[in-house]
Amino acid sequence: MSAPTAPKKKGPPQIGLLKGLGVTLKTFLSKPTTQQYPKTKPDLAPRTRGVIALMEENCTVCMLCARECPDWCIYIDSHKETVPPKDGGRARTRNILDRFAIDFALCMYCGICVEVCPFDALFWSPEFEYSTETIEELTHEKEQLRKWMDTVPPPPELEYGAELPKEIQQGLDAARKKAAQRAAATAAAAPAKDDAEQDSGEKKEVEQRLEDTIHVEAQIDQDVFDKLVAEGKSERVARAKAKAAYVRAEKKRQADEIRAKEEG
Amino acid sequence: MAESIFALDSFWLSLILKLVAVVAFFLVAPLIAGYQEHKVMAFMQNRLGPMEAGPFGALQLVADGIKFIQKEDIIPAAADKRVFSAAPGVVLIPTLIMIAVLPLSPGGFAEDLDVGIFFALAVSSVGVVGVMMAAWASASKYSLIGGIREAAQLIAYEIPLFIAAAAVVMQAGTMSLVGIVNAQADFTAFGIPVPYAVPQAIGLVIFGIAALAELNRPPFDMPIADSEVIAGHMTEYSGLRFAFFLLTEFGGMVVYSALMVVLFLGGWNIWPGVPLPDNAILANLIGFGVSMVKILGLVFVMTWLRSTYPRLREDQLQRFAWTVMIPLAILQLIVTAIGKVIA
Ligand code: SF4
Ligand code: SF4
After folding, report:
1. A63: Cβ below 6 Å to ligand 2?
2. Which positions ≥6 away from A178 have C-beta within 8 Å?
3. pLDDT(B17) > 80
């Protein structure tokens, strides 16, 4: 092993001293990036983790968040209610949320509660301006937590061509099957219907299926990307849309190819 | 001897006038220089600096001063109380006295001494007495180490400072600060009118570096290196007494810059060979403006160096003074002498 060598010096000795002066002078002449916060709002990332919001309707009072919270700063109170039985059967009970509060003076913003909630009731909101005069006021109740829910950005779109979550995929398959059955039933009921129309409908369906079966590796369509960026879209959005455009175009091309082969 | 604009028939009246002028300059100039330093350094670090107190934070130092007044004045139990309390005043006085001989415009000075530069530099050395007082009386190891470093540094850097100034005196043929400015007014090197900064370029650099060291300005702030000795001799001070040290630092920056302007940059003259208007009031106003612009320009350079270079180590600092600065300063002196004899 060779001993570490000092980086090669460029230029005459002590030129570095002047270069250093150049760096500070350049910074001096450039505009500082400081944002003067109360006067100008900071441009935070859209999914900034500012505060925790509660989707009250989704909460089943399972208490997982309260138990997992390392600081024990989530307060949950609830009572049970009996729901009268629907056409026979036995009565059911369910939990009614009475109080849900987070003490943000204790919370360390670890996000464990958001991670752990199995019912999608807790979310990160980018809202951050909730400082108060006293520490007690930092314990926010469910009314306030629900209000913050309105500031939560929608979940990011799936990339085009990405696999859907299993339960959604299953639901979709079931719905498609049902629709197909219904279509078959109506077709059987009205055989006199215009053949051509039905043909085209069938054909379209086949085409759709064909394209669904083709798998394409997502790539960025540079033209679309440049266009979107030029339109002022953020790079993240432009990248996703450019990928989607590429996948769509590629699938169509491959489907056309297959069809051409089948016909020819 | 030139006439000061503050000279009146009545001795006492003119004394009071001069005192007021000197104290006013001493209180206002450091605020301007300090504000400039805050801002320049902020921009060099990609920040905005003070923005809230006054327009663009211009009153930040005033606000700081008010805050210092409100603070408790703490004297450590083990401190030598009388010496401890007196030290900030002793540090302050040399700067104040130096202002008295600084010529900022054709008549803008309190006193024009025949030995002006000698007086100014001699008085400046008194400051170290105050620093040593503060260091010793604080009864703190950080203060003591800082004070001793300061003493060693001042001894090392005062020699090149004096030699560089001596070369200028030799060239001008006078020790009077006003005389030096006047000598530069019609100075030409090979027929081109230039200030002494050109023939005395080495002297200018050496004087500047030595002034930085005298003022404990980075990169020569070993005596108050905060990572090692907290704040050196100022460690135990608080409130108004600490503010005195700060004021002295900023005041010292202005005074040493003013000395450099007088010695090397042609003083109140815009450029040698360009006379100020004949009208006395106008000449004084323009002269003062020119001086201030040059002074603040030098303060800018000091800040620039501060935000660019890391602090020197103690041994590097000493070696640099004794093996580089002093020989170069002597070389400058010899070259000046030869030039003077030949010319
Ligand atoms: S972010 Fe962490 S500390 Fe805060 S409430 Fe959730 S689990 Fe508790
Ligand atoms: S984990 Fe979710 S559903 Fe369960 S109590 Fe907490 S917020 Fe409600």
Report:
1. yes
2. none
3. yes
